[in-house]
Amino acid sequence: MQNVLNGIPLWWYLVVSSALFCIGLYGTLARKNAIALLMGVELMLNAANINLIAFWRYLAPASSGGLAFAAFVLVIAAAEAAVGLALIISIYRTTRSIDPEKLDRMKL
Amino acid sequence: MTIQQVLFIVIALAVLGAAIFVVTTRNLFRAALMMIAAFFGIAGLFVLLDAGLFAVAQVLIYIGAISILVIFAVMLTRGMQGMVPRNSQATAAAVTVAVVFAVLLLLFGPLRLTLDLARWPVISLFAANVSPRDVGGIEWTPPGQAIPAVPDTYIADFGRSLVDLNQYLLPFLLIAFLVDVVLAGAIFIARQRRPAEIVEDRQRQAEEETEEAEAMRRAGVLPGAASLPEGAVASASDH
Question: N or C end: fewer C-beta atoms under 10 angstroms in chain A?
Answer without folding.
Answer: C
